Each structure stands twice: as structure tokens, then as C-alpha cells.
Amino acid sequence: MPLDTSTYSLALLRLDGRRWNELRRMHAQISTQPTADGSSYLEMGNTKVICTVAGPAEGRRAGCGGGIVGDANAMVQVEIGIAGFSGVDRKRRGRGDKRASEMQMTIANAFSNTLFTHLYPHSTILITLHVLSQDGSLLAACLNASTLALIDAGVPMSDYIAACTSGSTSSYSSNDEAADPLLDLNGTEEQELPFLTVGTLGAVEKVSVLVMESRVQAMRLEGMLAVGVDGCKQVKEILDQVVRRHGKRILLESVKT
Question: How does pLDDT run across 28-58, given as a tens digit for each residue?
């Protein structure tokens, strides 16, 4: 059934009750897996992701996931496992799944340029992501979960990578001049509306990730990007609160002991 966006401009509310510039509920934790060097759990709406980080460790692993490597830098490798029950279609995705491979390369590219990989020559940093539930903003959730897990692992980086999605209420074919931008699309909206995933570095407006998998008029792209960058600022504040809360808890535990 096509998504009816005619009420968006009238009621100024979307199907899930949010306004056009509101994020979905976001919940995150770090240090969720004691056996991993770094780990995190993140929810963006009903999209739920677990991330673990192994490394930096010596040696290189060939043939697993997306990997980016330099001559004297650490290799960043990413593996994504999507559970068969995570989506509505209950589709089981294998290791050769095209969309998962594209996301692996995107995440590996983003963090290879953000992490201080030159401090760990001839080493490997392995990021493993498990998708438990999908309801839109999957790539953004994976990027945010990876950021938290890398911070938990103590891997130095220049700043947070915070990501979210933005879209437009008008499809490419309708060419509606009164179309409005939307922030943080859910699964139903992503199936019907054009959208992009944007990731920024820290609190500045430096775009480090920009992926668009649908067609949209060029005149709408600037507005979508501006809304997405503003949403990344909100996501960055939430991630920073999670890290600070975890740090305070560790300090209190060390004082008690």
C-alpha cells in the first residue's frame, strides 16, 4: 500500500506522530560485551544493532568484509550480519549480500579516515555488526553503533561520526513543488520516499559519509542535506551523553573500590 503523505503538510505530523524535524527515540549503551575489546548496543526507533570491536591486533585477515588499508596504517575491516527475523520479509542474507557489502565498504572508508590508523602499523581493527531489527536508518545506526564501540575499545579518533537519514515528502515522479524535507525516516517512509544517509564529523558541519540510494530532484537535495546535517548534531549530543554517562559510572566504581 503506497504511503499517503498528503496529511504531512496539513497536520504537520507524520504517521508515527513526529514532526518533520524530530528524531525517533534513540537509546544506546556501551561495554555490553565483556569479552570484546569494545562493544555497544544502539536503537534508533525500531532499528536495533549490536556492535563489537576487536583490536587493534597484529596480523591481517584476508577475505572478510570490507577492508581499507594503507602501507603503514592499520586495516579497518567491517563485517555485518543481518538476522533473518530482523525485517518484515524474513529474508536470510548470506555473506555475498550486495547491500551488506556496500555498507561494509562505506563504514570501513569512513572510519579509516577518522581513526588514527598510523599509530597501529601492520594491525587490524575488526568491526562486527549484528542487525537485530530493521525499521529504517540502518546504515546510520551501524555508523553510530560503531562509533560508540570504537570509543569503548579506546581506539583514538579525531572525533565522533554521527549519522542519520533525511528525505523528502515528494517522490521523483510526482515533482511536487511544495514538498518538505523529513528527518530520520522509518522503514515505511524509506520504501516510498527518496532519502539519503549523511554522517558528519563531530559538532562541525564536515560531511564524512553521504549515501543516496534513490532518485530526487536536484532542487531538493540541498534542503535534505541541511536537515540531515542538523540531525547529525542532535545525534552527536546523544552519543556524547552516553559516553559521558558511562565514564562517570566507571569513575564512581573505581572510587568505591
Answer: 999 998 888 999 999 998 999 999 999 788 8
Please check whether residue 196 is in contact with residue 167, taking contact to mean a CB–CB distance below 8 angstroms: yes
Provide the CB-side half-sphere exposure for 136 (13 A, CA).
27
CA torsion 102-104-110-113 (nearest 10°) is -120
Q: For 94-155, what is the HEC assignment?
A: CCCCHHHHHHHHHHHHHHHCCECHHHCCCEEEEEEEEEEECCCCHHHHHHHHHHHHHHHHCC
**β-pairing verdict for 123-133 and 75-82:** parallel
7/55 Cα distance (integer angstroms) = 49
Q: Could you say which DSSP state residue 157 is in? A: B
Q: What is the pLDDT of residues 182-239, one digit of tens each?
A: 898 888 888 888 899 999 998 777 899 999 988 888 888 888 899 999 999 999 999 9
| CB-CB neighbours of 237 under 10 Å | 12
Cβ distance 225 to 196 under 8 Å?
yes
Strands 195-201 and 181-183: unpaired
Name the pTM for this structure: 0.86
- Asked if residues 239 and 144 have their Cβ atoms less than 8 Å apart, the reply is yes
Strands 195-201 and 161-168: antiparallel
